[in-house]
Design goal:
single chain; alpha+beta; Rossmann fold; Dna Ligase, domain 1; D-amino Acid Aminotransferase, Chain A, domain 1; five-stranded antiparallel beta sheet; four-stranded parallel beta sheet; binds adenosine-5'-diphosphate; binds magnesium ion
Amino acid sequence: MIVILGVENEAHAKRVATYLQAKGEEYIFLDTQNYPNSIFLDWEATERNKGNITINNKKIPLSDIKSAYWRNFSDVKYEHFEDGENSEFLSSMLERERRSALHSFFYSLDTNWVNSMHAFDLHKKKAFLTSEFKKNGIRVPKTLITNDKDALIRFYEENDKNIIYKPVLGGAYTQKITDESLTDEQLATLKVSPVQFQEFVDGVDIRVYAFKNTLYSAIIEASTIDFREDMESKLIPVDLPKKVQEDCFKMMKIADLKYSGIDIRLSNKGEYVFIEANPAPMFIHAERVTGFPLTEELIKLLLS
Ligand SMILES: Nc1ncnc2c1ncn2[C@@H]1O[C@H](COP(=O)(O)OP(=O)(O)O)[C@@H](O)[C@H]1O
Ligand SMILES: [Mg+2]
């Protein structure tokens, strides 16, 4: 049995399911939003994989779970429980209980996770990973995380006014800082949230799909700083120097990844600068335009 963490109507989860089916492998979708309302779980915390998970009335012994593909994690639901004055306390306590049980279970389930909850938790500490990569000799952009405008201005000057900003956690477009963008109004927003600033690596994007010991890499041709803003972006297969390939594997080891979509910037001076290693990258578009056998590689990993 292979668990697909995600929902049936999401393209990548669906594609993995289709491939598994074609190979005669049993799989099941796990949408954690349904826990504990309609997903039932028991496990003996002092034993290895002793217990059961019941999804859609199908009871699966934990020892039958061969691997787990982590596509989307929706965590547990917050539900409002009416309890007079104590409603808010009760509702958030129950949410915490659900979360603690589920996360402990994900950490405990001893299976072939692609990728593990530990890897996802690490990925959310992006700036920490950036420092770990640097410590291990991987070239990363100079990075500042701050909510202090004076620190930002100093960093801006120190880096010849050539920096970008993006969210600390990710998920929004990367943009360049200019003298014009440093208005009092903009700087005041730092009081609401810290921001991540980096030296701007002028050049092109490279996306690497990495599987245990195989790499597929392509240059992304886009007309915007952040390639996702350009819907017409193209991927052109490219070979990477040995040292860059080694750094990809090193990065995966540090980030606890068996499979990853690694973002690199190749600067105009020919320097490879590592941006991040994603634990559950999208791959359907890349597979279609490059012909890289990405789904097959992922399936191979799940069945290994
Ligand atoms: N320091 C940088 N210099 C130049 N481009 C960058 C830099 N950081 C990010 N980018 C561009 O923005 C994209 C998104 O940034 P990234 O850190 O990968 O965040 P996300 O989590 O949103 O994917 C990168 O793939 C790259 O194209
Ligand atoms: Mg990225």
